Every structure is written in structure tokens, then in C-alpha cells.
Amino acid sequence: MKKRAIIVSFEGIDGCGKSTQAKKFVNHLKSQGFDVLFFKEPGTTKIGKKLRKILLVKTDDIHPLTELFLYLAARNQLVAEQILPLLTQKKVIVLDRFMDSTVAYQGYGRGLPVELINLAHNIILKNIKPDITFVIDASASILHREVKKNPDRLEKSVKFQEKVRRGYFNIHRSEPGRVKIIKRQSIEKTFAQIKNEWDKFVNEYPANTSFLQKLG
After folding, report:
1. Residue 187 CA: distances (Å) to CA of 11, 82, 124, 145, 146
2. Domains plus CATH for the chain?
3. pTM score
4. What angle separates helix 140-147 from helix 158-174, to the nearest 10 degrees?
5. Is the bond leading into 176 cis (omega within 30 degrees of zero)?
């Protein structure tokens, strides 16, 4: 199978604004004539939406390993049902969270073995990974003041979110070519950074993005 689709993921701790930026990015590409598909994790599929309701319930009763396997189950369904059939098509697949979220949250945040998560991803993803990932970065203490009025189970602890944030930095250090740290500013200034990194990606990897250059 020859991969032709381009996969872009948006990551970051809770309240960083990644969903806003992901949607803005999708609209930007569509305005340029790109064929874009947008998926949210966990969610999108029928099974994923049901699992999302369980994962975001305001309770501490979910064991970390149970939480991990629920996220992995939702991701497996998304990959099998939606992403794999699209890989040979000239499309841009934009993901609001993907594999790096699990490494950052369940690995570095919850303290589960990153090796276990990577092993599961090797089976589930079948060598699929984003071509470029944007991590919207901001201090957990600042963001906590913005989301504390209605926190879900994963948003309650600043200490936990800082662990997750450090996890994203570790992922960036291991894959700086793929994972781009975007400093959170105003919506427009943050998006300007994303657009700049995207333009560099398209120009530097013509073998993978020739159809994007033609459309752009």
C-alpha cells in the first residue's frame, strides 16, 4: 500500500486551545482547495463516542490501566474504520489528539510504562503516525485558572498537567522533525506559528507533499 494522505495532529494539555487551532487549520486548508478530513479523539466513530463518555466522566474510579486500554480501543476503531481506508487517497487527515496524547497523559502523566504504550501502538497503528504534529504549549497553572470552572476528570490537577506537559517536551526531543512546539499566544499569533511550520513542512518534504504544493 502506497501512502498518499498527509496526517496532521494537534496536541497539548487541557485548555491550551488545540481544538480551536485544529479547526482553524482545517478551514485554512479547505480555503486553499485541499481535501481535508477532521477527526477528534476519542470520538468520531460510534464506539469512540461511547468510550469518550466513559473516559470524561467526573470520577476517579477508573484505574490508569483501564483508562489506557479504553483510549487504545477508541484509537484502534478510528484507525481501522476511518484512517486506514484513506491512506492511499490524496487527502489531509487532521486529528484533534492522537498517539502522542496517550504517551503524554497515560505514560508521563499517569506513570504507566511508555514501552507498553509504544508496543500497543505498534500493533494498532500499523506504522501509521502523523507526518507533522503541533503541540500547543502553555503553563498548566495559567490554563488551570481558565478551565477550573468546569474541569473534567483529567483537568483537575496542575501537577498532573505539568507532568503531561513535560511528556510532550520529551516526545518533541525524541522526534523534533515531526513534533513542533507552538507557544500559545493569541489565537491569531498562535495560528501564525502553525502556518509557518506547515509551510516549511510542505516546502522541505516535496516527495511526500507534491499534491499539496500543486493545490496550494
Report:
1. 15, 29, 34, 18, 15
2. 6-210 (3.40.50.300)
3. 0.90
4. 130
5. no
Question: Are residues 172 and 104 in contact, defined by beta-carbon separation less than 8 angstroms?
Answer: no
Q: What is the 3-state secondary structure (H, E, C) of the chain?
A: CCCCCEEEEEECCCCCCHHHHHHHHHHHHHHCCCCEEEEECCCCCHHHHHHHHHHCCCCCCCCHHHHHHHHHHHHHHHHHHHHHHHCCCCCEEEEECCHHHHHHHHHHHCCCCHHHHHHHHHHHHCCCCCCEEEEEECCHHHHHHHHCCCCCCCCCCHHHHHHHHHHHHHHHHHCCCCEEEEECCCHHHHHHHHHHHHHHHHHHCHHHHHHHHHHC
- Counting as low any pLDDT under 70, the low residues of the chain are 1, 58-60, 145-156, 205-216
Question: Which pLDDT score is estimated for 150?
Answer: 55
Question: Do 5 and 178 form a contact (C-beta atoms < 8 A)?
Answer: no
Grid cell for residue 49:
463516542
The confidence score (pLDDT) of residue 207 equals 56
The residue count of the chain comes to 216
pLDDT confidence of residue 215 = 47
Say which amino acid occupies 130: P
Instruction: List Cα–Cα distances, 17 to 30, 75, 135, 147, 211, in angstroms.
Output: 20, 22, 10, 11, 29
Of 3, 40, 6, 51, whose CA–CA distance to 212 is shortest?
A: 6
